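Budget justification note: compute hours in this period were largely spent on complex prediction jobs such as the one shown. Inputs:
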Amino acid sequence: MDLWQSMAYGFSVSLEPYNLFSCFLGVFIGTLIGVLPGLGPVATMSILLPVSFKMTATSAIIMMAGIFYGAMYGGSTTSILVNIPGEAASVVTCLDGYQMARKGRAGPALGISAFGSFIAGSIGVLGLMVLAPPLAAMALKFGPPEIFGILVLSFTMVTYLAGKSKLKAVAMAIFGLILGTVGLDPIIVTPRFAYGSVTLMDGLGLVPLVMGLFGISEVFLNVEQKLKQEVFQTKIKGLLPNKDDWKRSAFPITRGSLLGFFLGILPGIGAIIPTFISYGLEKRISKHPEKFGTGIIEGVAAPEAANNAATAGCMVPLLTLGIPPNVVMAVLIGAFLTHGVQPGPLLVKEHPEIFWGVITSMYTGNFMLLILNVPLIGLWVRLLKVPYGILFPLIILFCLIGVYSVAGNPWDIVVMLVFAVLGYLMKKFEYEPAPLVLAFVLGRMAEESVRQSLVLSRGDLLIFFKHPLSCAAVVMALILIVSPIIGEGLKRILVKPGERLAK
Amino acid sequence: MKRHQILSGGFLLFFGAIICWEARKLDMGRIVKPGPGFFPFWLGLFLVFVAAALIIHDRRINPAEPAPALWKGRQWNKIICVLGVLLLYAFFLEFLGYLVATFFLMFFLFRSLEKQKWGVVISGSIISSLLTYFLFKVWLQVQLPTGLLGI
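Corresponding output:
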């Protein structure tokens, strides 16, 4: 099948009424939770995981993906109107978006973020279509050492990109890997760390873990401080950006899309980092960098394009290698697995309807969002006025339903609460949850690949350097690990001891 | 000294050590054919090292920095209450059934998180438990416990 044929086939799947409805449901819920604070795409997708059991695999994944990119749209709406990013990927949008709203240009700001997201999403999906099949074909030749190499590189990237403390991120990744070993051994099915508990014997569930870390703990953090709710009173008129707006945003949107897509492919990056980088890039190459932050349209267009293109980029490693590059994709893997579908190099051959159906649905979904968002902005603004005293109990309830209904096991609620407390404390002590979740999901794959590689090589640890691809990945990881240490060392040598003391 | 950072590092160190200890009880296998204890053991050991590095690093960087007040002025007692009630919910959910247990839970949450008026509390807990019951159990056919009332 060539690309056009595949695309036509994909559209024939994604335009089926049921799939189209799932896509609509996904983007609608996605926008909704993007607008509401306290509930992100990760927790929402986990809540809906049990609901999706009843759907076909294709429609379930179409819906889940819709939630992810729908949330990107919703997040920008609150950033612009109330200066509260509903989603972490929209933090940068606050800078210029809110200022535009204050100047009475909320309409064009919302408009350009919707159009920019649409254009970027479309560019991203095109990239995905072109890049994914050949990558999947290549990935078919990977053995355990190659998989291990890629996983090591992924872990390293995730920790390397971590915010404040890389050491803490490493600790969290190992912690996640250890949590992943709870349950039956993947190769010879011996129970580990179960202590006679049936709940633990099955292994810790991704859903209770994620909902605890991202759902309930977020509510805890919000509950303990007295939040003020204020909605900026502005009349939104004329959502369409004018000619000048378009002229000024055309290149930022293009650059943001390309940047977002290619960064999104890399493990550990996700949709948040590209927004910061693209904002920085626009500021650097702009003729009037001092105007950034005062409410100019480039500052909204570029990061909004970047986060939407990144959502398509994230799908590349998931669909071709079966390796989720970030937490959202890790939950999406859960959706694949509950339907008995293994994402990875064989997906395009074994389940072309899922592969092409999901990819093309992202295109129709982006189109729906564009149409949805323009008339519904008024509704989203009104939603922001729901008092937290009503909202937070509902969020807790949805998390409870989601966790319980995965297996009908009330102990899963207890597991969720344990992780809620852990997530709350992690936030307090400045540990990031993302490396933990990613490592937890990839743990089984990592363990299998190490053990199989060692069996293959009869215990020779150098096997990881004997296969070119795994060697390249491991060496790259080593460079990443060593580079900050060298930098630190150089600083010590260059800065004289006396000056250090004076500091 | 940043006491709370040492505390978290200490916890990780302790956790890693326990994992090593427990993994030793499993079959470690040999390097030619690693067993179930192999991966957890090395992970535990690695965690011990990283946690130790964390503690040493923190001591060196901020020897005299005062600990930030993490819980000062925060309503952490609310969190303890919510946690307790959610635990009770987990234990009584199957006995009471979804509708009854959820009604009591929502009643408590609406009243305690940010005090709502009694009218809002009562109508809110009835509406939210009924609506979710119909949405998830009747329409989406998600399995939720029937309990006392048998529905």
